[in-house]
Structure formats: C-alpha cells, structure tokens
From TrEMBL, chain A:
<dbReference type="Pfam" id="PF00528">
    <property type="entry name" value="BPD_transp_1"/>
</dbReference>
<keyword id="KW-0812">Transmembrane</keyword>
<comment type="similarity">
    <text>Belongs to the binding-protein-dependent transport system permease family. CysTW subfamily.</text>
</comment>
<dbReference type="InterPro" id="IPR035906">
    <property type="entry name" value="MetI-like_sf"/>
</dbReference>
<feature type="transmembrane region" description="Helical">
    <location>
        <begin position="92"/>
        <end position="112"/>
    </location>
</feature>
<protein>
    <submittedName>
        <fullName>Spermidine/putrescine transport system permease protein</fullName>
    </submittedName>
</protein>
<feature type="transmembrane region" description="Helical">
    <location>
        <begin position="175"/>
        <end position="194"/>
    </location>
</feature>
Automatic annotation (TrEMBL), chain B:
<dbReference type="GO" id="GO:0055085">
    <property type="term" value="P:transmembrane transport"/>
</dbReference>
<feature type="transmembrane region" description="Helical">
    <location>
        <begin position="112"/>
        <end position="133"/>
    </location>
</feature>
<keyword id="KW-1133">Transmembrane helix</keyword>
<feature type="domain" description="ABC transmembrane type-1">
    <location>
        <begin position="67"/>
        <end position="260"/>
    </location>
</feature>
<comment type="similarity">
    <text>Belongs to the binding-protein-dependent transport system permease family. CysTW subfamily.</text>
</comment>
<feature type="transmembrane region" description="Helical">
    <location>
        <begin position="191"/>
        <end position="217"/>
    </location>
</feature>
<keyword id="KW-0472">Membrane</keyword>
Automatic annotation (TrEMBL), chain C:
<dbReference type="GO" id="GO:0042597">
    <property type="term" value="C:periplasmic space"/>
</dbReference>
<dbReference type="InterPro" id="IPR006059">
    <property type="entry name" value="SBP"/>
</dbReference>
<dbReference type="GO" id="GO:0019808">
    <property type="term" value="F:polyamine binding"/>
</dbReference>
<feature type="signal peptide">
    <location>
        <begin position="1"/>
        <end position="18"/>
    </location>
</feature>
<comment type="similarity">
    <text>Belongs to the bacterial solute-binding protein PotD/PotF family.</text>
</comment>
<protein>
    <recommendedName>
        <fullName>Putrescine-binding periplasmic protein</fullName>
    </recommendedName>
</protein>
<comment type="function">
    <text>Required for the activity of the bacterial periplasmic transport system of putrescine.</text>
</comment>
Amino acid sequence: MSSAAEQAADRKVRRASWLLSAPALFLLIIAASGPLIIILIYSFLEPGKYGNVEWVFSTDAWVGILYSRDIFDGTYKLADAHLSIFWRSVKLSLYTTLFAFVFGFPTAWFIATRSARMRTALLFLITIPFWTNLLVRTFAINQIIRNEGVLNTFLIWLGVIDTPIQIIYTDFAVFLGMTYVYLPLMVLPLFAAFDRFDMRLLEAAYDLYASRWQVLRHVVFPVVKPGVIAGSILVFIPSLGAFVTPRILGGGRNMMIGNFIELQFGAGRNWPLGAALSVTLLVIVAVALAVYVRFANRDNGHG
Amino acid sequence: MADRTFSAARLPGFSTLAIMVFVMLYLPIGLLVLFSFNAGPSPAIWEGFSLQWYPRAWANEQVKDATFRSLTIATFAALISTFVAVLAALGTTRRKRTGGQTFVYLMINQPLMVPEIVTAVALLILFGFIKVATGYQGLGYLIIAHSAFCIPFAYLPIRARLEGMDLALETAAADLYATPWQAFRHVTLPLLMPAIIAGLMLAFITSLDDVVISLFVKSAGQDTLPTYMLGQIRRNMTVEVNAISTLLIGLTVVMLTAFFMLTRRGD
Amino acid sequence: MKKLLSAAAVLLASTAFASAEGELQLFNWGDYTNPELLEKFEAETGIKVTVTDYDSNDTALSKVEAGGGGYDLVVPSANYIQIYVEKGLIQKLDLAKLPNHVNIAPEWRDVPWDPGRNYTVPWQWGSVGMAVNSDTYSGDINTSAIFLDPPEELVGKINVAPEMNDVLSLALMYVGGEACTEDTAVLKKARDVLMAAKPKWQSMDYGATPKLASNDMLASVYWNGAVFRARLQNDKVKFGYPREGFPLWMDSVALLSDARNVDEAYQFLNFIMEPENAGLISAFARYANGISGSDPFMPDDMKDAPEILIPEDLKASGHFLPTCSPKALEYYTAIWTELRK
C-alpha cells in the first residue's frame, strides 16, 4: 500500500521534473541541438552551382574532405589543402593548451596560496578578462602586434629595429592571440583544484626530504590532475573551433577550421563540404570530451 | 632544520611567472583603453589626452543602432534564458538522480561543448528556411538563438545556489500547510533571488559578447555591436573602435562587480 | 520582475515597428557607400537607407541565394549580373519609374551583361591593379609580377584581395591566356604560378585601404579607387596597371526579386542616376561612375588622378571580365580552393 503510494509520488516528482525542464529543452532543441541534424543532412547533398545545395544525395563532400580530384587529369589524391588546415588547427590548439598550462599553472598556484582576501581579489582580476568581450581582447592584441602597432613603434623608437617585425598575419600571431584569450579558462579550473588541495600534504612530503619538484610531481600533480584535464579541455575545444581570433590575426591566409567552414558558406560556395567539415569538427570535439570523461571518472574511482 | 620548513607559497619562479601573467593579461586591455583617450588618430602613438572619440563614435548612426540592437537582444535573451533556467534548475536539483536528469544536464550544457561556428552554420540553414517560408525577418531569430546559448550561463549560479540551500525551511512551510506554490513564492524564490540576478547578468554579458552566431543569423540591417566592430576592425581601424571597446569593458566590470557582491552575500 | 518584463516588451515593440515605413535595405560592398549620399536621400525622400556590407561577389551571391536576407538592392559586378538574372534573383526594372535612366552614359548603356540596362543601373566602375609603397619598391609596378613573381623587396609583404575572378584572371593573363579560358594547359600554368607565389604573400584580405595608408601593408592586389583613398593619406602608395592584362569592372545596382521596399528602391535608383548624386558616390569611394554630366560634381583631385586615368599605352591591357561558362567556373573554383588552403 505504502509502496504504491511511494511509486505514485515518485512518478509525480519525475513528471514535475520533466515539465519544469521542458521550456529549456524546447529552446535548446530548436536553436542549439536540433539544427545540428540539418548539418548532417546537408553534408550528404550536392552543392548548388552558386551556393546552397541541390537536393541530390551525394557523398562527394565526405570524400572531398580527404581526397581531391585533380582538376586537370581527374586522378584522386589526398586533399592536402584540407589536411593542412586541420593539422594547423590541431597544432595551434595544442600549442595554445600547452602554453596556457605553462603560464596558468603557476598563476593558479599563486592565487591559491594567498590569503583569503587577496585570493578573492586575484580571482576577480582573472575573471574580468574572461568575461570581457572576446572581440575586444583580440582587437587589443591586434593593436599591439600590428606593423604600426604599439610593440613595433616602441622597438623602433628604442632603436632595436628599424623596420617593423612581421608578427600579425602569421601562425604565431594566431597562437599568441588564442593563448591570451583562453588563458583564464585554464587558470580557473586549476585554481578550483588547488583550492581543494590540502596544503598540509606538502609539508608532510617535504618532511620526507623530497625536493620541491619531486613534491610537485608526486604529491601535487596527481591530486590536481582532474583540474589540469578540465582546464586543458576548456582551452583546447574553443581553440579548435576558433573563428574570430584567426580571422583578425591570421590575415585570411592562415585559416583554421572555423574560418574554412565559413568560407564554404560564403565565397567557397560549397555548403555540403562546409557541413561535412562541421560534423568532423564536432566529432573531434566529442572525442576530446570522451577522453576527458574517461580520465575524470578514473580519477574519481581512485578516490 | 628551520630553513627546510616548506612554505607552499614559495615555489621558485612561480610568483614571478604569476605576476607576469597578470601584467600580460592587463597590458593589452590597458593600452586599448588608454589609446581610446588619444588626441591623435593613431592607436599606437600618443598625442595627448582627449575625449573626442567617444562623442564621435556616438554620433555614428550605425554605432547607435547596433548598440541599441545589442542591448535589446541581450535583455530578452537574459530574461528568457534565466526564466527557463530557473525552472530547469528546480526540476533537476535536490532530487534523486535519474537518467532523465543526466540527459537534461547534458542538453543544457551542450552550447558550452559544441563549437560556436557549427551551431552558427546550422542556424543559418534552419533560419534561412523559416525566413523564406514565413517572410518574418525580425530580431526574433537572434533573440531565440541567443536565449539558447545563454541557458547554461544562467543555469550555473542558480543550480549552485539551489544545491546549497537548506531544505528545512521549505519543509517547515509545507508543515504549516503552505501549498507548494506558496512555499516556492515566499520561501524558495526570495532565497534564490541573488542567484537569479547573477544568472541574468551572466546571460546578459554572454549575449552581448557573441560574434559568430550573430554573424550568421542576422538579416539585413541587423548588425549587433560586435558584428559591426568586426567589420570595422578589418576595414577602418580608427580609435572609435577603442572607444566602443572601452565602454564594453566598463560595462563588463560593473556587471561582474555586482555579480560578485550578489553571490558572496549569501555565503 | 513584472516591471522589467513590461519594459522589455515596450522595447521590443518599439524596435519592431520603428522600421515599418520609409526604409530601404541596401546590400553593398564594404566602405563603398557615401554616408552623405544616404543623408541627402533621406532628407529628400524621408526614406532611411540601411547598408549591410559584404566582402566579395561570391559572398553576396551566396547570401542572396540562401534567401530571406531581407535586402532590397544589391550591387554585383558585371560578370555576376547574368547569374542573378538566370537564377531569377533580380527583377526587370520598370523604366517608366526611372526618368533619370536617360542620364546613363551612352557607353554604359548597351553593355554586354545587361543590354539596354533593363536590370541594373550603374554604380561605379574601375580596375584591378597593384598598389605598391614606393619607399619599399621603386621598380616597375605596371606588371602582375608584383604579386606573381615578387621582387625581393616585396616578398612577404604583399596582400592579395581574395576576389576569385580578379585574381585568377590576372594570373591567366599573366601566363598569356585570357579570363574564363577552358584551355587546361593555360589554367594549369596559371595555377602553378599562383601556388608558387602564394608563400611570398603576407595575407589575403580585404580592408587594405587603411593598412596601405598606415604602412601595415606595403603592397596589395587591389581596386583603383581604394588605393586612391590610401594615397590621399599616404603619398607613397602608387597604383600600377599590369601590362600583361588587368580586369576592368563595373558594379551596378539591381533590384532583388524578393525586395519588400520596391517603391523606395525605385526612388533610390532614380536618385543615384542624378549627376550630382552620382558625383557624391564617386567623391567618397573614388571610382568613376557611369552617369553623364557627373564630372562637375566630382572632387577636383579626381580629374588627373593616376588611379583614374589609365595611361594611354596600357589602356589596351584592360579587359572587362566576361561571365565564365560553368566549365570554366569549375576550374576557377578548384584552383581557388587549392590556393586558399
């Protein structure tokens, strides 16, 4: 009797839970998740002559990602054009993640080891750039590294150089911009991990005459690893899909996947290829996330 | 042995690096702000203090339109996303975990995981269909798109607050024969209010920031401030853009300060 | 909360209805429309013109083709007009509503892309050439070798406007072919030249005018009027006409089939064929227009500008680009994709 009532109550709670979530789900399905299915469909169509698509089934877009038909002799060869863009995107994103870690780790550590008041203030200082408009921050970098920008003007004024150093419109500029823009995404989860870390462990380890670096590697790092992975994922994923930063700092020659996708929907006039590239990007992101979930769960398992 | 006392705060080089990072984070923004007050037209050569670029930017009809449009979209997107996020948070926290909840949780966080460019392209196609079919080309598309990707940002502080809340008060209210609605209206909602306002603000900033999705969804004459700026950065890098940027930075700082105050008050 | 919501509702309502009457949506190239022209038009007719920018013919076409953009007028280049006509994207003009149609200069009336001007009215015309900073390179700039086989001084400093037809046509003429050729031997040669040159470029981007003026760019494949504007701020910027052949173009205004403000569009089209107003268009973007009698309304410095007056010996090298056949277009697109990787 009571179990039936409990079950009924349980069902009621469940229904209420769904009903309450329904409006959010509805909005997300029509304007975030649902449209992704359209992309999948479009990747199997033929491109229209001047953009858009012809409603004819075709796997050309998918074949086209890896292979390109030579326009002159009709032979198929590896589409090194696309592969080099993918490779550049992955490479720059990995560099960005690595350097964000190199700079983010000491910063998060520094914040975590301050007094409570100082910590709040420093956290606030990290949060401001994080929430500042991405375009504004990229523009700020642009103003510094362009040929007639602050850096070159200053170096010429000092007499160190007499013609501007070409930084903007290079891969390095894109990497620099992304590291700058996404650094707070590394610092915040790292800080959260340090914050939970019991500093007394350090003293214990140190009493065992471990060197500082040994302590860091064997005591600190294992404990904060989930934070490191979270930070890396948070930096890697937006870097991979970056659009604004490479567009402003890359000069249209050093494209990343995001820009290449946009090109297909604009001047490139190959929507199915753009759609197939989007799905590919999505798959790479999903793999990165799956790796993250696996690592995170394993670490939790160890407790 | 005294000199071997381990001080966690002192790892060689860490402090130097950290301070360098803070300087590097603020130097570009600082220079950007500084040069918005430049008397000359260069964003790199200082020619004296002047406020001329602010009224100049504001005299530009396109800047004014884009600002108004951005604020309209952000207001609606913040209200809508926070409203649905409050409901979803009530539906997913403080209950037994079920498979359904994991699904809802994943869905809500989906905009954080899918690269913006992919969503943007998908929306371009979908809204293209709807625009042709219905003939409606208003701001609604931008508002709906923004509302969707703002949901996780609104949801986060609300969920955190709900999870930290004491159930005892609600139980007490229920014991006094308050209906669930009364209990919510007079007990839960007031307690939740700081988090709701925090969610509103995060959603508002997120909407105001967006470039990529707006770029693909907008119809004729629907430039938002960021899409307008993107065009300007590539075409005429005048100090006007510095002035607009400075105002955006100012707005962010004000909002975040308020946000910090609100979320800390309850703790 | 309630107050906030109702305030928001009022805000939305006001933005939704502000645009109910007397507006016009112009879809035009960036940095190409004189704000004074629009102010004058609004003062005379009460119609508010909103301009949305695009960067390239291909982008504009693809946005229009996608539908639902909400644009009334578009400004494609000559070689794109036939595509718009064939796809039914633009509508035939009712010339009775355009009394100023008689002002179109005779040489711009019976143009191959729109005989009798039944679909389009002239906006501006010009050429594609080489912008070079004379401080950096003082040699011969009347050659496409500037970007296809760059002199030492310019390696790594050249911008190339990413406009497919212009760039490929320049390359084809450079290797001795002609625009829109289907001759695979020539196409292959052009591709090889482009691919070999690409590593020596700095960027492929629009928006070169301010960057040329500020020395952020030292050379660029670009449009004459835009280079003219850069030269007005920085007299080191010179413009060269490649003797191997360079594209001439004319951009014309067309009325889209799904335009919503048709009456306003006709008023605007008629307005811009008034010589004084055509002069305003040129005064801003610094290209010639196709309207008779507009000369007195142009700035004096345009009359003898080297960017406007093509030297006699190079005149024969300028060619209007035809609309490529689908076959040629396929080659173009394939080479272009390879180039933009």
